[in-house]
């Protein structure tokens, strides 16, 4: 197997990973980037609809700045965040991120007088060029920067395992180039996990197909701690049909060029959510939308799978045509964005939880392993904040990198074992493998069948209405799938090159680990908070649960601990309150 040496290997080609690689290069180190998809073309970063103005810049006021901190701490993080991290990120966005983006050619939409077009809301944001397209343009710039710097990029390569030396330190990884069908290993002084969110735990997700939780699964198996994995975001105003339009979003957020947002209506035509009325201080009021929809579902006036509608019909038509990208999608369905409602349904969105780490250095509980962006457990969803993580982790590594690689004979054994495991997932497709299955009375299963089976389990066990009983039932079903179905996975082809079923088999192993640890973590949190609603614990409990819910795996067993967040400038203001009555 080919072995590559570098100073730092970055896993993930989104906002956090690309910026981490660029900053490492600027700091005189030799980074390498590995992306499961195409760098800057997959994952969550391309889905970013806007970039937030988290300060008094661009005509903002002190109140705008205060509203930004309140939004991130309350509506986006539900007080499960280190607020000093938020303040540091906001300062960086104002003084570094925005100036750099404009200097690199990220051209924000402007009004007729030349001023940058902003939302007319307490928390302000800008778009380039239209709401829903900013991430695409930003990531195109990042890709060109990486190419100009000559940073090695290994695209369409999936990392299969982290390597650890005799001291337990992460010192590299193994990966499969699934286009060429070749495995390779990397020896590095540090590994940065920047794989983004684990959205693909259910059938409908706002992320691309690559987001099957690989970073969480790899870190979990390497002994790292996880934090708040149960804290999952959802969209409720994505197009219900056609089902392939999973991320096409009718923004409930304040719209650029106006103080309006979309409205959401139940099956009886009653408006049950409007941002300017129900959550004026929230930039992206996804959690409150979830609460209001859940109440409609419980009242029999909507379904999570549809039967309710969203619309921009009350918004100035000229503003919609100027700043909203969704108009053409309405037209393809024979609808008019300026007057028609479209049926909506829920879609799994970003996750707040992830790999436990220090938010001021990005260091994890395992030496040699660092994180950046959505795979960490710092804050949910903001592309600018994820990019801040990338710069911070680069600076932290540069200040503490060991003088030499830390691999040893133990890592060579791991490389051989991992090559054998990965090859085994492909070779089951040969005649001997099928004969062995037949003799054992076991019918082979396509890896995609197993993946969709895991999604179906999570749709039931980890939907928007949860209980201890349904989550324990989900864990039992996952355990049965691990025992009976994972061993039967058989790709229909034994081809080495671009064998996507081989990739699906790797995904299924990662998914089942991520889903299991997520349900284990969810069972431990005995309250409801954000989009996490348990019928058996239907209250927000700030006395016991305004803390990190930390889990790690030792073999087949899980261990848990809690850790309080530092006191911040903004506090919940109550100890315990009924879930639906909490306005965030």
UniProtKB/TrEMBL annotation:
Pfam families: FAD_binding_2, Succ_DH_flav_C. Residues 456-555 form the Fumarate reductase/succinate dehydrogenase flavoprotein-like C-terminal domain. Gene3D superfamilies: FAD/NAD(P)-binding domain, Fumarate reductase/succinate dehydrogenase flavoprotein-like, C-terminal domain, Succinate dehydrogenase/fumarate reductase flavoprotein, catalytic domain. It is an enzyme of class 1 (oxidoreductase). It comes from the Bacteria. GO terms for molecular function: electron transfer activity; flavin adenine dinucleotide binding; succinate dehydrogenase (quinone) activity. GO terms for biological process: anaerobic respiration. Its EC number is 1.3.5.1. The keyword Nucleus does not apply. Residues 7-381 form the FAD-dependent oxidoreductase 2 FAD-binding domain. One of its GO terms (cellular component) is plasma membrane. InterPro entries: FAD-dep_OxRdtase_2_FAD-bd, FAD/NAD-bd_sf, Fum_R/Succ_DH_flav-like_C_sf, Fum_Rdtase/Succ_DH_flav-like_C, SdhA/FrdA/AprA, Succ_DH/fumarate_Rdtase_cat_sf. Its cofactor is FAD. Keywords: Flavoprotein, Oxidoreductase. This is Succinate dehydrogenase flavoprotein subunit. It comes from Pandoraea anapnoica. The gene is sdhA_2.
């Amino acid at each position: 197997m080919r072995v590559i040496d570098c100073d730092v290997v970055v896993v993930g080609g989104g906002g956090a990973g690309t910026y981490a690689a660029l900053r490492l290069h600027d700091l005189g180190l030799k980074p390498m980037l590995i992306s499961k998809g195409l760098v800057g073309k997959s994952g969550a970063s391309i889905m970013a609809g806007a970039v937030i103005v988290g300060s008094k810049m661009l005509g903002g006021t002190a109140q705008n700045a205060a509203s930004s901190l309140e939004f991130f701490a309350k509506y986006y993080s539900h007080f499960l965040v280190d607020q000093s991290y938020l303040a540091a990120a906001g300062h960086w966005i104002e003084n570094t991120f925005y100036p750099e983006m404009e200097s690199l050619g990220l051209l924000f939409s402007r009004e007729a007088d030349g001023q940058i077009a902003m939302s007319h809301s307490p928390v302000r944001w800008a778009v380039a060029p239209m709401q829903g397209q900013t991430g695409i343009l930003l990531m195109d710039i990042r890709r060109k920067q990486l190419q100009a710097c000559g940073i090695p990029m290994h695209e369409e390569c999936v990392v299969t395992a982290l390597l650890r030396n005799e001291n337990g330190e992460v010192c590299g990884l193994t990966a499969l180039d699934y286009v060429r069908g070749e495995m390779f290993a990397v020896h590095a002084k540090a590994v940065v996990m920047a794989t983004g969110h684990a959205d693909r735990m259910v059938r409908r997700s706002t992320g691309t197909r690559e987001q099957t939780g690989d970073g969480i699964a790899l870190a979990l198996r390497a002994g790292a701690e996880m934090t708040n994995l149960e804290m999952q975001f959802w969209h409720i105003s994505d197009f219900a049909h056609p089902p392939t339009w999973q991320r096409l979003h009718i923004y409930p957020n304040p719209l650029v060029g106006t103080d309006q947002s979309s409205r959401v209506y139940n099956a009886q035509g009653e408006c049950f959510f409007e941002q300017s009325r129900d959550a004026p201080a929230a930039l992206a009021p996804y959690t409150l939308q979830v609460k209001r929809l859940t109440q409609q579902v419980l009242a029999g006036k909507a379904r999570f799978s549809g039967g309710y509608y969203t619309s921009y019909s009350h918004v100035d038509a000229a503003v919609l045509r100027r700043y909203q990208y969704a108009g053409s999608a309405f037209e393809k369905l024979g609808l008019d964005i300026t007057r028609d409602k479209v049926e909506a349904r829920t879609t799994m969105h970003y996750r707040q939880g992830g790999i436990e780490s220090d938010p001021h250095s990005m260091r994890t509980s395992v030496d040699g392993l660092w994180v950046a962006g959505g795979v960490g457990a710092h804050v949910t969803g903001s592309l600018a904040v994820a990019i801040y993580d990338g710069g911070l982790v680069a600076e932290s590594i540069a200040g503490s990198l060991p003088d030499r690689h830390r691999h040893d004979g133990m890592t060579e054994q791991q490389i051989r074992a991992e090559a054998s495991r990965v090859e085994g997932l492909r070779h089951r497709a040969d005649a001997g493998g099928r004969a062995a299955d037949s003799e054992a009375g076991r019918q082979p299963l396509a890896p995609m069948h197993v993946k969709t089976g895991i999604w179906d389990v999570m749709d039931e066990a980890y939907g928007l209405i949860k209980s201890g009983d349904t989550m324990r039932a989900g864990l039992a079903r996952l355990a049965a799938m691990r025992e009976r179905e994972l061993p039967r996975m058989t790709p229909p082809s034994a081809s080495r090159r671009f064998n996507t079923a081989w990739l699906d088999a790797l995904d299924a192993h990662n998914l089942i680990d991520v889903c299991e640890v997520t349900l284990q973590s969810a069972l431990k949190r005995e309250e409801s908070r954000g989009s996490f609603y348990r019928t058996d614990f239907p209250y927000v409990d700030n006395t016991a649960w305004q803390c990190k819910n930390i889990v790690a795996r030792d073999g087949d067993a899980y261990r848990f601990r809690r850790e309080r967040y530092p006191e911040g400038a903004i506090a919940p203001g109550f100890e315990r309150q009924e879930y639906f009555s909490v306005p965030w």
